[in-house]
Hints:
- Keywords: Ubl conjugation pathway.
- GO terms for molecular function: ubiquitin-protein transferase activity.
- InterPro entries: HECT_dom, Hect_E3_ubiquitin_ligase, HECTD3.
- This is HECT domain-containing protein.
- By secondary structure, the protein is an alpha+beta fold.
- It has a single domain, classed as Hect, E3 ligase catalytic domain (Hect, E3 ligase catalytic fold, 2-Layer Sandwich), CATH 3.30.2410.10.
- The chain has two helices and three strands, in the order H-H-E-E-E.
- It has helices at about 1-10, 15-25, and strands at about 40-45, 60, 65-70.
- Strands 1-3-2 form a three-stranded mixed sheet, covered by helices on one side.
- Strand 2 and strand 3 form a beta hairpin.
- The longest helix has 12 residues, at about 15-25.
- The protein is globular, with a radius of gyration of 13 Å.
Amino acid sequence: xxxxxxxxxxxxxxxxxxxxxxxxxxxxxxxxxxxxxxxxxxxxxxxxxxxxxxxxxxxxxxxxxxxxxxx
Length: 71
């Protein structure tokens, strides 16, 4: 998980960060006030049951502000 945040904060351009927010939030910007967040951002691992994990992609759920990352 730490690796994920390191890569996001140091390797992503500002445009890539905006695209990430759009992927997980469904909007291009985050709320400016803490009170305006509907839910907290959650990252959940998920296990691939068939096929190599290297072929799995993250899954985002914009309605719940959740990102599922393969192991």
